[in-house]
Amino acid sequence: MTDRFKIKFFVLLTIFLVSQCLITINARADMTSVLDSLAGGAGYNTAGAQSETALAETIGSIIAKFLEIIGIVFLIYMIYGGWIWMKAKGNEEQVTRARNILTNSIIGIVIIMGAYALTFFIMKSLGAAVGLTNLGFGS
């Protein structure tokens, strides 16, 4: 692959993944407003319930989606390293390059998983300290 193709591919991949992240966050906000209107129609009081957690949920969702996107990028990077290794045909320079790519992608995935776990723990601990339960990271 040429360098120009790689750059175009990763730019398009990044644009796609970021757009999916924004669509997910927007759909979540739309669904919350629909559920609030249904709850209001059923006689439940929903006033003020959303305003306390909207910012925390949004920040949590953005952090979670960002870490998911980075994890996907490292997974693609790992697949790319495997592809280079398969196409090396015994060329020691290509095999070394592929090993370096695979090693770096494994290290990257471990770092991303650690960052996600640490962020999840901190957001849940802070949420419990101030009385919030849903911070955008699921249950």
Helices and strands, with pairings:
Elements (H helix, E strand, L loop, with lengths): L2 H39 L7 H39 L4 H39 L9
Helix pairs in contact: 1-2, 2-3
Overview of this protein structure:
There is one protein chain. By secondary structure, this protein is an all-alpha fold. The protein has one domain. 84% of the residues lie in helices and 0% in strands. It has three helices and no strands. The protein has helices spanning 3-41, 49-87, 92-130. It is elongated and about 70 Å long. The model has no long low-confidence stretch (mean pLDDT 75).
Strand content: under 5%
How would you describe the shape?
elongated
**Class from secondary-structure proportions:** mainly alpha
- As for the number of domains, it is 1
Question: What is this entry, summarized?
Answer:
This protein is mainly α. It contains three helices and no strands.
Notable traits:
single chain; 139 residues; mainly alpha; 84% helix; elongated
